[in-house]
Amino acid sequence: MPRRYDPERRQRIIDAAIRVVGAKGIAGLSHRTAAAEADVPLGSTTYHFKTLDELLVAALRQANEGFAKVVAGRDGLEDPRTDLAAELAAWVGQWLAGDRTGVELEYELYLAALRRPALRPVAAEWAEQVAELLSRRTDPVTARALVAVIDGICLQVLLTGVPYDEAYARGVLGRVVAGAGE
After folding, report:
1. What distance in Å separates the CA atoms of residue 64 and residue 58, rounded to the nearest whole number?
2. Keywords of this protein's UniProt record, alphabetized (predicted)?
3. How far apart are CA 176 and CA 174, in angstroms?
């Protein structure tokens, strides 16, 4: 039987891996579970992703696009008159109000970098890209501090189940912005 051309197969495998991790956690992901979820032969997953870490890297890159879409959909950073803390708090609120499973998945993959060195560069890219974006409005040190605070607020919301409090986030982020350059 001739091999069937399937240009979407790699993407379907990534999407399937994201669904598996969303349902079963990273521990539930294997080439076999991804293949079953994507409805492709096992050999397809190992053809496109030699190791599970390669598949996780692709999944994390795709998951990182969720926050990037929120940022791209807002233009408050371009206007220097916009309250930076308020804009960031709104970003976080919009992101957390979206697909909660996607946000949880993104953080699960992000934190997996602690044990999987192959994921670290992708996790670092996300933080660097957001910090670079924020550096347009503040200094690089403050931008990195804002990324850290955003991460902390998001993790608190995800782990505690407490609803996101945009006013609280705006206040905390405002303190970091106000201390810029000190």
Report:
1. 10
2. DNA-binding
3. 5
Tokens standing for 158?
């995800």
Tokens 């669904």 map to which residue? 19
CA distance 58 to 48: 10
Q: Are the C-beta atoms of 150 and 93 separated by less than 8 Å?
A: no
| pLDDT at residue 4, rounded to an integer | 67
Radius of gyration of the chain (CA): 19
Compute the mean pLDDT over every residue in the chain, rounded to the nearest whole number: 87
Q: What is the pLDDT of residues 35-94, one digit of tens each?
A: 999 999 999 999 999 999 999 999 888 887 767 777 767 777 778 888 999 999 998 998
* CATH numbers and ranges of domains, the chain: 1-50 (1.10.10.60), 57-179 (1.10.357.10)
Sign of the dihedral defined by the CA atoms of residues 91, 171, 143, 160, in that order: negative
State both tokens at 50.
């030699």
Is residue 147 classed exposed, middle or buried when 0-12, 13-18 and 19+ CB atoms within 10 A define those classes? buried
Pairwise CA distance, residues 3 & 48, whole Å: 15
Question: What percent of the chain is predicted at pLDDT more than 90?
Answer: 51
